[in-house]
Amino acid sequence: MPCERKPMRYGHSEGHTDVCFDDEGKCIVTCGSDGDVRIWESLDDDDPKSINVGEKVYSVALKNGKLVTAVSNNTVQIHTFPEGDPDGILTRFTTNANHVTFNSSGSRVAAGSSDFIVKIVEVVDSSQQKTLRGHDAPILSVALDPSDEFLASSSCDGSVTVWSIESQTQVAQWKIIQKSSDVSNAKSLCRLAWQPHSGKLLAVPVDLTVQLYDKNTWTHVSTLSDDLITQVVNVVVWSPCGKFLAAGTVGGNLLIWDVEAKLCIERQKHEKGFTVCGMAWHPSGVRIAYTDTEGCLGLLEGVSSSSPSSSSTVQSTKATAAKEKNDYDDLFDEDDDRMLDEGMSDSRSPVKKPVMEEDDDDDLMPATGRPRNRGSFLDDDDNSQDAGSVKLDGVPEEDGSSAILPAVGPAVSRPVYEGPMPTQPQRAFQPGSTPVHLMHRFMVWNSVGIVRGYNDDQDNAIDVEFHDTAVHHAMHLTNTLGHTMADLSQEAVLLACEGTDELASKIQCLHFSCWDTHKDWIVDLPKGEDVRALCLGQGWAAVATSALMVRLFSIGGVQKEIFSLPGAAVCMAGHGEQLLIVYHRGTGFDGDQALGVQLLQLGSKRRQVIHGEPLPLSRKSYLAWLGFTAEGTPCCIDSEGVVRMLNRTLGNTWTPVCNTRDSCKSRSDHYWVVGVHENPQQLRCIPCKGSRFPPTLPRPAVAVLPFNLPYCQTTTEKGQMEEQYWRSMLFHNHFGFLSSSGYEIDSEGQSQAEKEQQELLMKMFALSCKLEREFRCVELAEMMTHSVVTLAIRYASRSRRMALAQRLSELALEKANQFQEEELEEEEPTYQRGSRQMSSRQAQVENGCEEEEEDYPQEEQMDAEESTETRKPSLNPIKKGGKSPERPSPKPMSREGRVNPFKVSGAGKSSSSPAGQPRTTNVLDSMTVSSRKPTPLGGTSKQGKAPVLKPLAPKPKSKTQATLLQMSASKGSSKKLENSQTEAEKVKPAPAATPPASVENVENRKPKTGFQLWLEENRKSILADNPDFEEMDVIKEGMGRFRTLSAEERLNWTEKAKGDSDPKKRKREDEGQVNEQMESDEGSAKKKKPLDTSAKLSAFAFNKE
Amino acid sequence: MDPAEVEFLAEKEMVKIIPNFSLDKIYLIGGDLGPFNPGLPVEVPVWLALNLKQRQKCRIVPPEWMDTDKLEEIREQERKLDTFTPIPSLYYMELTKLLLNHSADNIPKADEIRTLVKDIWDTRVAKLRLSADSFISQQEAHAQLDNLTLMEINTTRSFLLDSLNYMYKLRSNLQPGRSQDY
């Protein structure tokens, strides 16, 4: 039997709960220990009606519009249903009642209390009471038999007793349940149930089984059990037809037996295994509602496919065709009304609606099929209609209908559609708003401010509040027109209402940034056209209407372009000059929505960026939020909580960047997004416990979620870095977009981002190197910028991967070539770009756009701009000097050669002074220097070296490499200078140890200094003294010891080291300093190079900090 | 030590505010604060929060423990136990006073909270007096009291120390020969 267990949802706070259906089965009614009775229109009802009836509610029963509750103030109260008004107290006990129940007609209520007493009260006249005394412990449960003759009660004294109501005497008693001292200690709630209609059987949960007693003989007739039951049965309920019996256990099992066959036909497990303490069977028999002790509510759908309620309907249809028709009309009418109702109340979850209605109703047709088929059905044979609709219901026809089917001709000829069902298209909505039917709601909450709508008895008003009070002060408007939609920008508030019979749909704009005295304007739409969605951009407003049109207005109220949409609009968003529209592209199936998206660029460069492509959403979800990041990248969020962002660099595809549901603690919790920021990476949202949207009071607090791209294996270092890298790439795309659309960009931030990306690449490169994945290394290097590739080459060569270094240098060469070509092409446009930026900056200031704030970054930008320009000429000669990119370029090298090596360490720090430095000596320097240009420039100055570098490939000691890594990992060294020197010193021996290739290189070898020789000799003793020393420490210690040597000894070592050298050097050596200067003193440009590289490397190590 | 001084110390506690202005990071001796984004919660010291609040530049988000349910629980705990229960904030009294005096409009159920905190305070100070009393009456040489807050110590310090001093003097005068042990 197909039975679907719906996900549980939060209903009440923890503790005992109870549940029942209303007579028609339209509503689920639950009660809980929080003292509330909630009326749910469906399981997905986000806004159930709550009635507070007391401090704690122990039991609830509902019949004939009377809601009876057993409350902790020792009373049994009546409330009207569905209004929930108190209707008096039915009876009182000396302590609280544990269970209340109606008889089948609803005229009497039985209640069992902890004071050992059972009372039976007439609902209309509460003075007519019958009291049953005889139990010796609190009553657990009571049940009235359908004939109103008997009452069964179970008690903590271990007995189940049947009373004759009339004589108030015990008819039968079985000591079958476990004794306990109190209800709270009882193993089972022991809810009893009489079989409906006949009342022939009484079901009693006994331990792990359900025992059935016969009414006539008061004997035990049968026992229902199942292997699945491991814990005590708590609750039993009969199906309305009386053929099936459902039971819920302490262990969270839900079972259904066919009583006659004693067959367990359904086994379900509570999703968390909590104790089921309340169960109710829907009057139609198709589903069971149940609640647990954690306060959650769940549903079993499609429970009794063969339940007589459907089969009996079938039979009755066959019997009375005329009456049938009427019935169906009734049903349809009722349905139509309900459709509207539900549409109003539940507009935000259209996907689930069809499913709900299908089961909600006693009619046998799915909601979606109804409007289409209704006409043809009515003039068709009734039986075929019925059979067909049974099928449509997804219910296999077993009993009655299958027998009818062959007899009816038309039924066979009419093929029944069994394919995927179309989804109800989702309604238009405003991003960042809460449902329209709420009395107090957010009309919009965005990055500018909040618009709240109040629509209660006293007031119909709109409150506008700005996050930044500098924009405008808060406003309070009376909502005479009944606006339901709103959007808010830095310039204006846009409001709109749908039209009524008399009044046209109106758009109202409060243009508060307007400088004349008329701050608002109102526009009426043509008759019959309603506003569906609206949005504000910078200097414009857009409105999508029911006539499948988008109307553009200027912010001052001038009508501008109008254009048609291919489908009904779902929502719109505006940012700057961009307009994003989502509409229904067609009909979705099986819960999916078919949405299309258009992105338009308004303003000076008018064009369509996205031409109505499908908008990707998660399966069976609908669009929940649409908007732009603060930086202007389109973003959408679906009801499954997946945030997707447009990736402009990959052909306008959508990349999932976050799943808000991952951060939710419970299934029914959601995050209500109010804004997305790319820099810093923030998803601003409001956590909502147990709902999709927040209430207006108490004022919700904004939380910030991080982004997390769903990359594979993010538990590994590799996966993490990949995720970080691509996230960084994606979240810095806006720089490219902004600069291409003429906005000024935060160049500092951009270079920061680039640096971060390159560092990540370098880390990944190092990781793959360690794992000996050389091919992967090359792949990574392909993503690097030229300057970082040279660094990678060095890394590779130092970790003795010659083949890799070889390939990388080829790659570097290629990149250099490529880059130079680009450079030449770009030469001219650069200046243009500069000037355009200047002008656009002015526009920027006027517009007060968000991205570029404050004055000083602009000045910095200016500096960078200027420095770019001044730098250009200085570099150009070099470029012209060597026409071929492969020229050995001695000039730049000699230039570098003349740089004071001590400056190198300074260069690492000099990132704070980005301007100047025509010759960037440090690799990462070029990345810290602001603006897009310098990076390539740094590369150019070095490109000449690439070919020369190739044969170099020095082999370092592996120790050196290790330290390099340590250094890069270590944080903030205070003795920066000293360290960098020692570092350089350490690196220095490396080339000496490597004699591969060219003669030139042999010359390049550096003689060891005296200190190094000494250190090699003494390393062991130092290590022996301090076994836990790191390489750095060894050297430091070594230096200390070396200094303590006498001058003669030191001199000796130095002599040893170089035999014949000029005394100048010796002096320096004596100072115990690392003698880098020596190299430059020797003055050879060629010799200079290895030193230079090592200096760079060391500087890199620090820069990475 | 003056209660005002203790209060001053409490003002360095961090509290969340929701600013309604935009400001970049500010660099202070005590650390960097911000950046301030309108509508986005940010942690600042109490002194700044109060200052901004007075200028109507922010709304203060009450600390998590400043909630009737949590405080009630603490109060029950405090009443049940003879020892001092750990308190969620070392400056609970000062913070409650400061925040409730200056931004009661941002704190739901401000009056209830005030009462609850006062109750907790009274219970704890009563305990403190009781333990001081037994400390003196039993003529102990030392005692250990955990989970006391600065303000609580402050209320009893001067009195307790002075009285101990006096008692010591009185005792040593009474028994000049055995002035060492009291």
From TrEMBL, chain A:
Location of this chain's protein in the cell: Nucleus, Nucleoplasm
Compositionally biased residues, Basic and acidic residues: 883-898, 975-988, 1053-1071
Chain positions covered by the region annotation Disordered: 303-404, 819-1007, 1053-1105
Comp. bias (Acidic residues): 329-339, 820-829, 848-867
Database matches in SMART domains: HMG, WD40
Gene Ontology molecular-function annotations: chromatin binding; DNA binding
GO biological process: DNA repair; DNA-templated DNA replication; mitotic cell cycle
A Pfam family recorded for this sequence: Ctf4_C
Gene3D superfamilies from the UniProt entry: High mobility group box domain (1.10.30.10), YVTN repeat-like/Quinoprotein amine dehydrogenase (2.130.10.10)
UniProt keyword list: DNA-binding, Nucleus, Repeat, WD repeat
WD repeats: 9-41, 132-173
Residues of the DNA-binding region: 1004-1072
GO CC field: nuclear replication fork; nucleoplasm
Residue stretches of biased makeup (Polar residues): 832-845, 918-943, 959-972
Residue ranges constituting the HMG box domain according to the UniProt record: 1004-1072
Biological role: Core replisome component that acts as a replication initiation factor. Binds directly to the CMG complex and functions as a hub to recruit additional proteins to the replication fork.
PANTHER family hit by this protein: WD REPEAT AND HMG-BOX DNA BINDING PROTEIN, WD REPEAT AND HMG-BOX DNA-BINDING PROTEIN 1
The protein's name in its UniProt record: WD repeat and HMG-box DNA-binding protein 1
Organism: Cyprinus carpio (Common carp)
TrEMBL record, chain B:
Keywords: DNA replication, Nucleus
DNA replication complex GINS protein PSF2 N-terminal domain: residues covered: 2-61
Role according to the record: Required for correct functioning of the GINS complex, a complex that plays an essential role in the initiation of DNA replication, and progression of DNA replication forks. GINS complex is a core component of CDC45-MCM-GINS (CMG) helicase, the molecular machine that unwinds template DNA during replication, and around which the replisome is built.
Pfam families: PSF2_N, Sld5
Subunit structure, as described in the record: Component of the GINS complex.
Chain ranges passing through the membrane: none
Coiled-coil regions listed in the entry: none
Matching InterPro entries: GINS_A, GINS_bundle-like_dom_sf, GINS_Psf2, PSF2_N
Protein name: DNA replication complex GINS protein PSF2
Subcellular location: Nucleus
Cellular compartments per GO CC: CMG complex; GINS complex
Source organism per UniProt: Cyprinus carpio (Common carp)
Residue ranges occupied by any GINS subunit domain in the UniProt entry: 65-170
Family: Belongs to the GINS2/PSF2 family.
Listed GO biological process terms: DNA replication; double-strand break repair via break-induced replication
